[in-house]
Amino acid sequence: MSGVELRSDHGSSDYFASGNAIQVEFDDRGCAWFIGANSTPGFRLLFHGVDLFNTPAAEVFELFCKSEVGPVPPFGDGGYTFCNQVVTLWEADEQYDHHASDGASTRPVWAQIGIGTPDYLSAIRKVG
Q1: Fewest CB atoms within 10 A around its CB: which of 14, 36, 73, 118?
Q2: Separation of alpha carbons 13 and 80, rounded Å
Q3: What pLDDT, in 10s, does the model give residues 48-84?
Q4: What is the pLDDT of residues 76-124, one digit of tens each?
Q5: Is 35 helix (H, G, I), strand (E, B) or coil?
Q6: Euclidean distance between CA atoms 101 and 108, whole angstroms
Q7: SS3 call for 90
Q8: What's the pTM value of the predicted model, to 2 decimals?
Q9: Would you kindly state where each structural domain of the chain is located, as residue ranges?
């Protein structure tokens, strides 16, 4: 990725930016097939104008539900993959709310939000 500092390299995954905010996974051909953004202090991820790491996990889930085709299961904080969009939400928890001020109450925020290719979706369906 041009202009973004490579922070670490773990075989088929590279991590970029401060706090490993961006994860890029590569397929067997060396092509990126998944990009995940991690909830880290100072990092913003916008979708339709919404700052996804400064929005409660349930609201982010509902935002992606609006763009999904077909039925979706009820909200759960463990994670979810929107198959038509190939968007993943992973582990909603209060520890990922980096926007709460000291002493302020926190809310569950997604640890990682990612996008993948159709090949990535096929691979994760085989494993889980």
Answers
A1: 73
A2: 21
A3: 999 999 999 999 999 999 999 888 889 999 999 999 9
A4: 999 999 999 999 999 999 999 988 766 666 899 999 999 999 999 999 8
A5: strand
A6: 15
A7: strand
A8: 0.85
A9: 6-127
